[in-house]
Amino acid sequence: ADNHAVREAACHCISELCTKVCADDESSRLTFKPFIKDLLNALLDCFKDESWPVRDAACVACGFFVATFPEESEVSLLSFVISGLRIYLTTSSLCAITLLLLWPLFTTRHQ
Questions:
Q1: For the residues 69-89, what does the mean pLDDT come to?
Q2: C-alpha distances in angstroms, 62 versus 16, 45, 89, 105?
Q3: Distance between CA atoms of 12 and 60, rounded to whole angstroms?
């Protein structure tokens, strides 16, 4: 979207999807499985946004996304986060570091 507020709102919607719709319901997760790649790509695009509120919302949404879809996001998100540690602003880096530290918690929860 051309408007940063719309991009930020999209990240919040993905967060809501992960925390309220799919969090503990396997059938809901399966319903959204065909869209996971698109949702993740949208978050990764927003993570690179020039607007810090969009990047911040993307960081939070990425954390919820990994908690809800750990297997599906593992390769794409982990490689992006590692490269992002060198490139993006301090706030995004702190979110990335937090995500890396919490990764074992998210993956063991869904085993």
A1: 65
A2: 12, 11, 16, 15
A3: 8
Distances (CA, A) of 111 to 30, 69, 70, 104: 16, 12, 10, 11
pLDDT, position 22: 85
DSSP state of 69: S
- Backbone conformation region of residue 55, classed left if phi is above 0, alpha if psi is from -120 to 50, else beta: alpha
Angle at 54 between CA 57 and CA 19, to 5 degrees: 25
**Global confidence as pTM:** 0.71
Q: What are the tokens at 105?
A: 């918690």
Residue 100, pLDDT > 70, answer no
Residue 76 in tokens: 């794409």
Q: Looking at residue 63, what is its pLDDT? A: 82
